[in-house]
Amino acid sequence: MRILFVGDVVAEAGRRVLKEGLRVLRESLRPDVIVANGENSARGHGLTPQCADRIFAAGADVITSGNHVWDRREVQRLLDDDPRVLRPANYPDPAPGGGVYVLDHAAAGPLAVINLMGRLFMADVDDPFRAIDEILDEIDGRARLVLVDFHAEATSEKIAFGWHVDGRVTAVVGTHTHVPTADERVLPGGTAYITDVGMTGPYDSVIGVDKQAVIERFRTQRPVRFTPAEGDARLCGVLIVADPETGRAASIERVQWPSRESS
């Protein structure tokens, strides 16, 4: 099973480079399944049904999210109507939608996609460590392949979570900080791990936002209107190769399109 996970899609630039990039990467990487985090796809904040349609049309099979999932009112109906669109499973009940989706691949069998959110420097959600234990008990026997999008701020929390589930899930991919890390590896138990896959959007920016506005905010500490940037759009993510019989990952590789060398 070849799983391509695409980092946070940011605004129009992100949606555009996602469509262009997946057209190329589907040929070169030959992914069986594509999962994309879409929580910033609507003008840099939140997810709408229209943005979800564009992400699916570009080639994604499942959309995950994070702390910005509630930024658009329309998302509540989307979460209830389409189980392929996930919000973090550890939001306190009651919350619209769900945080787990089991995709049945014709050749490789079922893949469970789980969306969770960290707690350090984030919203006050339920414990993700306990949540993953409960979820894995619930889906036991339904899917050997398990991909977790862990949407969190703190590097320490992400790494601790990776070790917590090593050998029990196929992959843990970190999202939220929009900056790709260089620590991708397969842990001893067979779980592919990376602290953050980076964003899919404008890198001539400050994590997707117009850089001059952010600089002014830091210099003056006064309210400044943040708008999405446009330049240097890149798709960032990871390709995970896993054995559907064991659920163990064989490799994890960072993906960037276009690469810095070709841009």
Number of strands: 12
Question: What structural category arises from helix and sheet content?
Answer: alpha/beta
* Helix-strand topology string: EHEHEHEEHEHEEEEHEE
Low-confidence segments, ≥5 residues, pLDDT <50? none
Rg over alpha carbons: 17 Å
Overall mean pLDDT: 96
Highest-level CATH class: Alpha Beta
What would you call the quaternary organization?
A: single chain
CATH superfamily: Metallo-dependent phosphatases
CATH topology: Purple Acid Phosphatase, chain A, domain 2
Give me the number of helical elements.
6
* Largest pleated sheet: 6 strands, mixed
Tally of domains:
1
Please give the share of residues in helix.
25-40%
Task: Quote the distance from N terminus to C terminus.
Answer: 30 Å
Mind explaining what this structure looks like?
With 263 residues, this protein is an alpha/beta fold. The protein has a single domain (2-202, 231-257), classed as Metallo-dependent phosphatases (Purple Acid Phosphatase, chain A, domain 2, 4-Layer Sandwich), CATH 3.60.21.10. The protein has helices spanning 11-28, 49-58, 75-81, 128-138, 155-165, 211-220, and strands at 2-6, 33-37, 62-64, 100-105, 109-117, 145-151, 171-175, 185-186, 192-194, 201-202, 233-242, 249-257. The strands form two sheets. Strands 1, 2, 3, 10, 11 and 12 form a six-stranded mixed sheet that branches. A six-stranded mixed sheet has the order 4-5-6-7-9-8, covered by helices on one side. α4 (128-138) links the parallel β5 (109-117) and β6 (145-151). The radius of gyration is 17 Å and the shape is globular.
